[in-house]
Amino acid sequence: MSDVARAAGVSSATVSYVLSGKRPVAPQTREAVEAAIAELGFAVNTAARSLRTGRSSMVALIVPDIANPFFAQLAATLQEELRGLGIHILVCNTRARRDEERALLAEALQQRFAGVVITPFRLLPRDLDALHQAGIPVVVSADVPFGSADLVVPEAKAATRQALEKVKAARRRRIAMIAGPRDATGGDPRLELLRTLAPQFGTSLPRELVVRGEHSREAGAAGFAELMSRRYRPDAVFCANDVIAIGAMDKASELGIDIPGEVALVGHDDAFFASLVRPQLTTIRYPADEVGRAAARLLKERFEGRSVRRTVQVKAEFIARASV
Amino acid sequence: MSDVARAAGVSSATVSYVLSGKRPVAPQTREAVEAAIAELGFAVNTAARSLRTGRSSMVALIVPDIANPFFAQLAATLQEELRGLGIHILVCNTRARRDEERALLAEALQQRFAGVVITPFRLLPRDLDALHQAGIPVVVSADVPFGSADLVVPEAKAATRQALEKVKAARRRRIAMIAGPRDATGGDPRLELLRTLAPQFGTSLPRELVVRGEHSREAGAAGFAELMSRRYRPDAVFCANDVIAIGAMDKASELGIDIPGEVALVGHDDAFFASLVRPQLTTIRYPADEVGRAAARLLKERFEGRSVRRTVQVKAEFIARASV
């Protein structure tokens, strides 16, 4: 502040009045101060303000898999949206482990982060209590509500219906799913949705055609191999995300199984590589940029004093490509 | 510590002796304390120690493009390697902008991070001075030395020679490059290497066949379109990284130009998607996991007191696939 005052040839108090708007300042004085601020590259923002109040300008984005492009896009959007506040986004990878999820939350608490955006994987809602008590805003991006945190949640019913419609039109009856692990917090809402809607399309998702694993390419390959070894072999496979679907494609190619000729494949998320693979992956798009914008908005509202909990729904979209 | 003491039924001082090894402790007491530590999941590590000395347990990984899988892999490896020390990796995206690079370094300094690993893009070596002065270890991952920081650097001469050999065998003579921006710190060593080695393979990299842009898919598409509009049209295009190469493939497909039939394409890095695209991308692999292990080792040595500067070379490798 004193640098600005010196450059503008005014007192520090005057700079403070210009910034806070608390007292009237002559137009040419205001201009001189603003020019000095611009010249010095001095960021005037709420983050700087919160810094003075003992809180950092950092927001942690805590995700289960930093290598999943969905989260890279989410990080980029959050950064873009919160940049005007001088906020820095720090991306933290939990590798879907609860101990790491908790350790990172503890770190965010200790360092008095300005906020947290998290996609919990094995965390429990009570793990957020300490942050809530400390008044650090937390936005959860998940498929189902998570305790009392602000929430960004998909509305995927229509898109899942369209996917099932398409699979039905391709005359597939034996649908299967490569789902996430059984012990993920909140269960597996993508699996539940598919199971609920399947009967409307003349099919079902029998228990024996659900295989489980981590959200990884390796787990996708293993899950696909397992399904192909079943006596009641599926002719359409839904995957909990696109990373898993790529693993399934690896294995199909290895086993000489034609996609979509023998087995139709549906991903989830629409990661950028979904259109790079051959055949191009049919998937349910969950737009990371919209999720990021919603999360940024929820954080901003908290910075500005909102105290009641909010939920924002983001619409998923069926993307028909070549794998069904 | 008092939790551990209570659980083990000993005094806090005893726990402290076990941890520090400063005084002898009876074997069964030591065992009781260690069991209590294990049970409570209490991490005894240098990070916790440094925390007590006022330094955080966070290491910032500062990268130009968080969406580039090279950096996601680097982050995952760093995390894996430093986990035993209780270190958390925070990934920060600079979007290749110097102001963001500097702001993130300032943040790392202010929060007394345990260390920084950075791939500078437009930063200047002097921007690291404050961190050096504060004794915060910095490891630079770059193609050329960067001031007095510890360095992880590629040895890519042999791999680039093999790529040129392969391009020559495919009877290509008019080679081009889609390079990074002109104002990147340290210039463009991948371009320089290609220019230096090309004459050994009966060709050259003329100035008119070098186009420049950011390290993005969009820039790759634009660069490829520009090269294809030249009168002296290239029949082999090298790209500064695989993300650029994917953009070039997008454009080739849009223009109906066959790869490798009409134009051979060589990427750099071997991102995971290089084997997903069709044709599969021929590239120069720079192993992110080895870079991560080297960077982690350099940081650890600094934590342990090394004061002289070190450089580690990581070997690049030519990966022949289907795009040449």
- Classify the secondary structure makeup of chain A into a structural class: alpha/beta
The spatial strand order of the largest sheet of chain A comes to 2-1-3-4-5-11
β-strand amount of chain A? 15-25%
Quaternary structure classification: homodimer
- In CATH terms, the superfamily of the largest domain in chain A is Response regulator
Largest interface comes to: A-B, 31 and 31 residues
Helix content of chain A: 40-55%
Tally of separate domains of chain A: 3
Tell me how many strands of chain A there are: 12
Total of helices of chain A: 12
Mean pLDDT of chain A: 89
End-to-end CA span of chain A: 61 Å
Q: Which CATH class of the largest domain in chain A?
A: Alpha Beta
Short description:
The structure is a homodimer of 324-residue chains. With 324 residues, chain A is α/β, with parallel strands linked by helices. Chain A has helices at 2-8, 12-20, 27-40, 46-52, 69-82, 98-110, 129-133, 157-169, 189-197, 217-228, 242-255, 288-303, and strands at residues 58-63, 88-93, 115-118, 138-141, 150-155, 175-179, 210-212, 236-239, 264-269, 282-285, 311-315, 317-319.
